[in-house]
Design goal:
9 helices, 255 residues, Rossmann fold, alpha/beta
Length: 255
C-alpha cells in the first residue's frame, strides 16, 4: 500500500510541476519586464527594509500604472554561519510573478526577519546564484536590483568564506549571458562594496546607484522598473503635475 501511495504522490507531483511549467511559459508571452529585487536582510539593513516594506504597495501600484505586465521576484539574503538555527535562512525566494498580493505578502511577511549581521561581507554571491536560476523570460528585458551595504565573499576575504563554494564573478557572468542587467544600490560608503557593485553594473550593462537618503529607495525601485520599460518620463510628468518635487529629485539619479 505504501509503495502505491508513493507512486501516486510522485505522479501528482509531476502533474503539478508540469502545470507550473506551462503556467510560466504562458506568463512569458505577456511579460514586459522581469525584475528581481535582491535585498540584504541582515541587521545593518533594518531601516532600508522597513522603507521597502512600508511602501511596497505604492511601489507596485506606481509601476503598474505605467507598465502593465511586469513580473517581479524577490531574493532576500543574509550570510553564512547560522544554518542550524530554526529561524535562519541564507536566502528566501519569491519566484517571478504578476500577483500583486503575493509580492506584498512576501515582502511584509514576518518570515522576512532581519538578522544580526556582522561587519564583513554577506552572501551576495548566493543571492546572485538564486537569481541566475529564476525562470526568466526569453524575450522581455531582465533586471536584478541589488540592494545592500556589504560586498560578496571574495572581495575583502577568501572565496572559501562562502561555504556553498560560489563565486560572485561567475554568477554575474551567468546573469550577463542570460541578458540580465544588474542595478546595484549601495546603502553605505564602504569602498570595497562600491568597487564590486560598480563592477557588476558595468559587466551587465546596468547602472550603479549610491543611495543618499533612505527615503529615496522606494522611488528608485519604481524608477528602475519604469526606465527599463521606457515609461520613466511619464512617471516624472505625473510627479510634476502633483508638485512632488522631492520625489522628482529621487528619480533624477536615473536620468
Amino acid at each position: 500500500m505504501e509503495a502505491l501511495d508513493e507512486k501516486k504522490e510522485k505522479l501528482f507531483r509531476k502533474i503539478r510541476e508540469r502545470e507550473e511549467h506551462l503556467k510560466n511559459d504562458r506568463l512569458f508571452v505577456n511579460s514586459t519586464l522581469d525584475i528581481v529585487f535582491a535585498i540584504d536582510t541582515t541587521g545593518s539593513m533594518d531601516p532600508f527594509i522597513n522603507e521597502v516594506q512600508d511602501n511596497i504597495h505604492r511601489i507596485i501600484e506606481d509601476i503598474l500604472e505605467f507598465s502593465q505586465g511586469v513580473r517581479m521576484g524577490v531574493v532576500a539574503y543574509k550570510d553564512h554561519g547560522d544554518e542550524g538555527e530554526d529561524e535562519f535562512y541564507l536566502t528566501k525566494i519569491l519566484p517571478l510573478t504578476f500577483d500583486k498580493k503575493e509580492i506584498i505578502q512576501f515582502v511584509r511577511s514576518p518570515d522576512l526577519h532581519i538578522g544580526e549581521g556582522g561587519d564583513g561581507p554577506e552572501a551576495v554571491e548566493c543571492a546572485l546564484y538564486e537569481a541566475v536560476n529564476f525562470n526568466w523570460s526569453s524575450s522581455a528585458p531582465k533586471v536584478v536590483v541589488l540592494v545592500g551595504d556589504k560586498p560578496p565573499h571574495g572581495v575583502i576575504d577568501s572565496f572559501r568564506a562562502c561555504n556553498r563554494m560560489r563565486d560572485y564573478r561567475k554568477e554575474v557572468e551567468a546573469l550577463k549571458n542570460k541578458g540580465v542587467r544588474i542595478y546595484p544600490i549601495l546603502c553605505n560608503k564602504i569602498q570595497e562594496t562600491e568597487g564590486s557593485f560598480r563592477w557588476m553594473a558595468q559587466e551587465t550593462g546596468g547602472e550603479f546607484i549610491y543611495l543618499h537618503e533612505i527615503s529615496n529607495l522606494s522611488d528608485l525601485l519604481i524608477g528602475i522598473c519604469l526606465k527599463e520599460t521606457g515609461k520613466l518620463s511619464l512617471f516624472k510628468n505625473k510627479l510634476i503635475a502633483y508638485g512632488e518635487t522631492l520625489r522628482i529629485e529621487h528619480i533624477k539619479l536615473l536620468e
